[in-house]
TrEMBL record:
Keyword ATP-binding in annotation: no
Name under which the protein is recorded: D-arabitol-phosphate dehydrogenase
GO molecular function: oxidoreductase activity, acting on the CH-OH group of donors, NAD or NADP as acceptor; zinc ion binding
Required cofactor names: Zn(2+)
EC number annotated for this UniProt entry: 1.1.1.301
Lineage: Bacteria, Pseudomonadati, Pseudomonadota, Alphaproteobacteria, Sphingomonadales
Length: 344
């Protein structure tokens, strides 16, 4: 079996002699067609962050990432009911393993979902990040006319924008914030009303120019009701962490900050606005099972176009190039095409 092998930060290769997995009771084996490179995979690739939570070891000791993928069921474990061989499915694994020909997946509604007709394997491999966006929007409970800001418009932040638009949320302005112009352009294409690049100047000033300001004894805000932090803390990035800027932007009362982006270590920020403005800071990790189903239905119906977010497609044999490509400023989503139907 071919499988990726992450050996050290900046080093990932391909092995052709990995032992194929066998299904444990309650599991299926998925023959992988397509697997996406996640932002969390990049944290790992850069500095080993989350390695133990993102990879699965083969009996040979190969360390295999990949937790968002699609393929066909190749084997059924003992006690598995309601699934059939050759069925098209999306798999999600908390411990990686998807950047390989085959991977074991627990047959539960959080990790295995059937693909509807009309959705390609490459599209379906973006189901998990789309479901993440749906959960974040649910948690945010956006009120009529509220302005929102989305920090980091990679595949997750773009999915948040798609979720807002597909669900018909009566939002005010949607301000996308990112340092990569290609991603900002894509954000406008799929539904953002405004874009802000921190390279162009102070983020607060740029957002305030769009949304106005509100001032009072609690301080000053940029009239933003909800901030989605899909960037987290990237150690090599200049400037304050997005969470600190979010606290500056957020409304003077009852704002919500939804935190999803990963953190590459400890950070120092000014927490004073938490007391002054009384925002709710909510973590978001994953999705409800029904949001996996909703994500696929949105693709099937055409309510969201996930194909437009796949900027690059490479074979598993080019795994090193694929990770380096995902690090580039022009990349939105790099998709690994593993099986024969992935390019269809």
């Amino acid at each position: 079996m071919k499988a990726a092998d992450f050996t050290a930060p900046g080093h990932i290769g391909i092995r052709s002699d990995a032992t194929p997995p066998m299904p444990a009771p309650g599991e299926v084996i998925v023959a992988v067609e397509a697997c996406g490179i996640c932002g969390s995979d990049l944290h790992m690739y850069r500095n080993d962050s989350y390695r133990d939570r993102l990879t699965r070891r083969t009996p040979e000791g190969y360390t295999v990432p990949g937790h968002e993928f699609a393929g066909r069921i190749a084997a059924l474990g003992e006690g598995v009911e309601g699934w059939r061989l050759d069925q098209r499915v999306v798999g999600v694994t908390g411990l990686g393993g998807g950047m390989a020909d085959r991977v074991a997946v627990p047959a539960n509604p959080y990790q295995l979902v059937a693909m509807p007709d009309g959705v390609s394997f490459a599209e379906a491999a973006t189901t998990e990040p789309m479901a993440d966006g749906l959960q974040m929007v649910r948690k945010a409970a956006i009120r009529d006319g509220e302005n929102v800001a989305v920090f980091g418009v990679g595949i997750i932040g773009l999915g948040v924008i798609q979720a807002i638009r597909a669900r018909g949320v009566p939002v005010g302005r949607i301000v996308a914030i990112d340092v990569q112009q290609a991603r900002l352009d894509k954000a406008l294409e799929i539904g953002a009303t405004d874009i802000v690049n921190p390279r162009d100047g102070d983020v607060f000033a740029q957002v305030a120019a769009v949304c106005g300001t509100e001032e009072g004894y609690r301080g000053i805000s940029a009239n933003i009701g909800v901030v989605f932090d899909c960037a987290g803390y990237i150690a090599h990035m200049a400037g304050p962490p997005p969470l600190e800027t979010a606290l500056r932007l957020i409304a003077l009362r009852d704002g919500r900050i939804i935190c999803f982006g990963g953190f590459e270590g400890a950070m120092t920020i000014d927490m004073g606005p938490i007391i002054q403005k009384e925002p709710a800071i909510l973590g978001s990790n994953g999705y409800a099972p029904e949001e996996l189903v909703e994500a696929l239905e949105l693709m099937r119906s055409g309510a969201v176009d996930r194909r437009t977010l796949i900027s690059h497609r490479l074979p598993l044999s080019a795994i090193g190039e694929a990770f380096e490509t995902q690090c580039r400023p022009d990349a939105v989503k790099v998709m690994l095409e593993i099986g024969p139907e992935a390019a269809a």
